[in-house]
Amino acid sequence: MYVAEALGLSKPAAEKLKEKNVLKEAFIKHPFFPDVIDAVRFDKRFAGLEEGTVVAKTIHGVEVVHGFPKIRRALTLYPTIKLHFKGEIVFEEKMNGYNVRIVMFGKNLYALTRRGFICPYTTEKARELINESFFKDYPNLMLCCEAVGRYSPYVPKDVYGVDFDFYVFDVREKRSGKPLPVKEKEKICEEYGLNLAPILAQCKAEEGHVVGRRVVEELEGSGREGVVIKDVNMVVEPIKYTTSETNCNDLSYAFRYFNEYGKDFMFSRIVREGFQSFEFDDEEKFRERCFRLGKAILESLVKSIKDVSEGRRVVERVELIFSSFETFELFTEHLKRSGVNFEVVELKKRGGKVHAVIDRVMKSTTDKIKSHLGGALW
């Protein structure tokens, strides 16, 4: 088995990983993925390999793409930054999209989501937008990007004024996941014409809480998500910090589809608001935050209840643009295999491209609301 060979495991050990559902299918076999014979993804962390690690059997041999590590979160800027870092740090914008690793297998680019799926839509966009000469010069590296834009299948946002694009936040070794220093990443992005997630500030760690607060307050109200705080040499693990606007937007989204999302998702964001209020707010700002938080929770929840009461389903609508009907069909098959309940609302060819409007049907939330509106007890 190629997984055993790639990771130095015995064949029985590799088979056991499949039996325990640690290893799962990473892609749909299709001519759109001509360089990949087979590929599996790690659905859980295993022996130092992050969740989302992919092992691919390609036409040129076996490739391992290390999963992207989870970044821990700061609830306070002081004293957290001062205790966590030494020396120079940067505040990089945490862009509002979804995490993608772009690699080259054989002659083509492939885009892997955080969980390790080779996504047809994102792969198509990578082949259209990313300079593949980088991978020919650096075959052992991968680009870790945030995929953003209004035509995003997972996080549709009209914040950056783009239909869809990639912004590099890390350049890492493909197999080990080891990151390059910030300056080397910047140099590579400039050389190959790659978008770079903006570096908003640089300072010494002991000044980080002052600079960080200024940066976070400047981002507030603009739809920006927050910051990732990084050691310039990428030796110390990064940490992240989000704006109040993002916390409330997340809560608004979660309560709109409340039965699809875990309580931990909601609870953690309310706790973040509490710590940020303690560190940032005077009495007036505290009252504003209370209103903003309450509105985020109730407004979207009531909208969902109203939709169901008037005979509609609770859905999330996305608009996507494909280069061909073939890629559209492959992507919808990818959604089915990922367990997504969806409905194609509109499909047409315009300007040489395939435009699709897709509703992700939130069946659990719809059914739950319908049940309670009918008198069921909680």
UniProtKB/TrEMBL annotation:
Gene3D superfamilies with a match to the protein in the record: 3.10.450.740, 3.30.1490.70, 3.30.70.2160, DNA ligase/mRNA capping enzyme
Superkingdom of origin: Archaea
Tagged with keyword Ligase: yes
Matching SUPFAM superfamilies: DNA ligase/mRNA capping enzyme, catalytic domain
A GO term for molecular function: ligase activity
Pfam families in the cross-refs: Lig_C (PF18330), RNA_ligase (PF09414)
Domain RNA ligase residues, every copy: 88-242
Keywords: Ligase
Record domain RNA ligase Pab1020 C-terminal: where: 253-375
Stated name of the protein: ATP dependent DNA ligase
Lineage: Archaea, Methanobacteriati, Methanobacteriota, Archaeoglobi, Archaeoglobales
